[in-house]
Amino acid sequence: MSNVKRLSLVIFGLITCHLIMSSQLSAESSQVKTAYDKTKNETTESLRLMTVMEKPGTIEARFPGGSRNLPSEILRMTAYFTYPGRTLVKPESVMLGFLSIVQGEAKYKDTDEVTVRVDGQSLSIGKLHVADRQIDTQMELKDVDYWRETLEVSLKTPEFLRIANARKVTVQLGNTQFDLSAEHIKSLRVLASRVGP
Length: 197
Hints:
Layout: H1 3-31, E1 32-37, E2 42-47, E3 50-63, E4 66-84, E5 93-103, E6 114-118, E7 121-123, E8 129-135, E9 146-156, H2 157-164, E10 169-173, E11 176-179, H3 182-195
Antiparallel strand pairs: 1-2, 2-4, 3-4, 4-5, 5-9, 6-7, 6-10, 8-9, 10-11
Helix pairs in contact: 2-3
């Protein structure tokens, strides 16, 4: 093989590797949203909302593509942290946020408990804070209310890193228990790469 052909193959290989790495990096960075608040001079880095639990319901709704039953309950999760200014500062804590939409009544109004099991070991974390609780006006139906609750719990950064680097994570919010999937944990690891050492 001539030197020119060999050099062409090496360059082609490098370009291909670069394109693959770029697409992986852009896919990862698209999972983390960065927003700067000029009035507070504060930046927030957050994960997109991930559905961690959905229970089927009995109310049928029509959509452009057909009809289906609305869920009776949806629970979504995110994680985020803030720092002053625009230059990344490693945070001392990371917030786990939960968005609950439930048919009937607010599900978490009588609890502030959250526990996490990481690879079979209990992790001590703080109490749930209710950021918002109201009837969801985007889900107005005749005789049925859907309640929307936004809940948060603050974790020290080492605790968040333990969760993000675990193989199995089980979360208990009040009476609701769910396991994080491999995709959920993978997303947490993307944010962890921003807060870790």
